[in-house]
Amino acid sequence: MHTANLQSVKMMNIQLVLEKMIEIRETTRIELSQLTTLNKATISSIVQELVSRHFVLETDKTVKTAGRSANVIILNKNAGRIFSMELLPKELYAIITNLYGEILYEIRKPIVNPELNYYLTEIMKTIDELKQNTFDSIYGIIGIGVGVYGILSKDKKIKFTTFNSWKDVELKKIIEDYSGIKTYVENEANISALGEKISYPDFDSLVSLNIGTGVGVGIIIGNALYTGNDGYAGEFGHTIIVPNGKQCICGNKGCLERYTANDAVIERYFELTNETITLETFINKYKQADKYVIQVYQEFINYVSIAINNIAQTINPKAIIISNKIVEDIPESISLIKNGLRSKIMNLELLTTSKFKSKTNVLGLTHLLIQEFFNVSNFYSRN
């Protein structure tokens, strides 16, 4: 029993050191001792073990500490490589990163047919291309992360997506059987929240509101991802905002998604003008003061304000981070949304747009796989 307890303490100490190494990347044994409150002998033993496992590297660089020189050690960013993919209705985006989360290679591939068989073929081709462009590393490819726009069960089976043929798809197993690489599949809003957590390490609760193809919410509570009883938490786009409103693909009427998602905005403009435009054109027309675009934009801002209010009052997070092209590209959007929040009991510390923009999801996946590779529970990288 005593030996088991010692081993448990040792593992916790190793995790603590790794968390600090991931956070600061370059340090000395003396600084690690100060940051972790572990004694110098314990730090030296742990660092020696991490060096033997190629997680940490010794360098020739020295720094002065308390009148003496100390060797600098660094996290080995080339210990492994990570593949991360985001599956969009019209595009597949994939990257290779090192263990600093730095992007080494990326692919943007148009998807002409979102149905299952075609899309699976494109996923496999993408994995093959990523493998061909992977630089050497000690542990090779440590994992594949996949972000999906849809509802996943607790066991990560895809239960529903906007792609009609994607029902009860075991994507994790399919990719692992093909690639032989451990694969992580998660809802895009959840990985977005994990990506945002990197930027706001001091916030133990936050919500990532993704408005794009659909509307999803990723929820961090107590520094951990919250997915609900069945894994379906965060499907905020299917909350009803207009009773008996527009028909939604989920079966209900008046869902938030039908009034704020990208296609919904374009559809509303078409209703007013009988003209079909792209989202980019919509934003340009707004800047040109097109009266119909301004009307649609004001309606959009109103619905988003209501959504923010409902999220803040229900979950009470410290921060809500919005990922949406209209909000990001029209600078006054955040101020207008804030003006729509009039509750005297709301206590929201931060409402802003994503720092990562289009790469939030894939970097969130990288975050997860680094965490799993190093077997640490909490860390905050510099990305």
Give the overall silhouette: globular
Structure summary, number of beta strands? 15
The CATH architecture classification of the largest domain is 2-Layer Sandwich
Name the poorly predicted regions. Answer: none
Class computed from helices, strands and strand pairing: alpha/beta
Sheet-strand content, in percent, reads 15-25%
- Round the mean pLDDT to the nearest integer and report it: 88
Radius of gyration: 23 Å
Q: Count the helices. How many?
A: 13
Can you identify the CATH superfamily of the largest domain? Answer: ATPase, nucleotide binding domain
Report strand order across the widest sheet: 6-5-4-7-10
Notes on the structure:
- With 383 residues, the protein is α/β, with parallel strands linked by helices.
- The chain has 3 domains: 2-75, Winged helix-like DNA-binding domain superfamily/Winged helix DNA-binding domain (Arc Repressor Mutant, subunit A, Orthogonal Bundle); 81-192 and 361-374, 2-Layer Sandwich (Nucleotidyltransferase, domain 5), CATH 3.30.420.40; 204-348, Nucleotidyltransferase, domain 5 (2-Layer Sandwich).
- It contains 13 helices and 15 strands.
- The protein has helices spanning 2-24, 29-36, 40-52, 116-132, 171-179, 188-199, 257-260, 262-273, 279-287, 291-315, 325-329, 333-339, 360-374; strands spanning 26-28, 56-65, 68-75, 81-87, 91-97, 103-110, 141-148, 150-152, 158-161, 183-187, 206-211, 215-221, 224-226, 319-323, 350-353.
- The strands form 4 sheets. Strands 6-5-4-7-10 form a 5-stranded mixed β-sheet, with helices on both faces.
- Strand 11 (206-211) and strand 12 form a beta hairpin.
- Helix 1 (2-24) packs across helix 3 (40-52), helix 8 packs antiparallel against helix 10 (291-315) and helix 10 (291-315) packs across helix 12.
- The protein is globular, with a radius of gyration of 23 Å.
- The protein starts with a helix and ends in a 9-residue tail after the last helix.
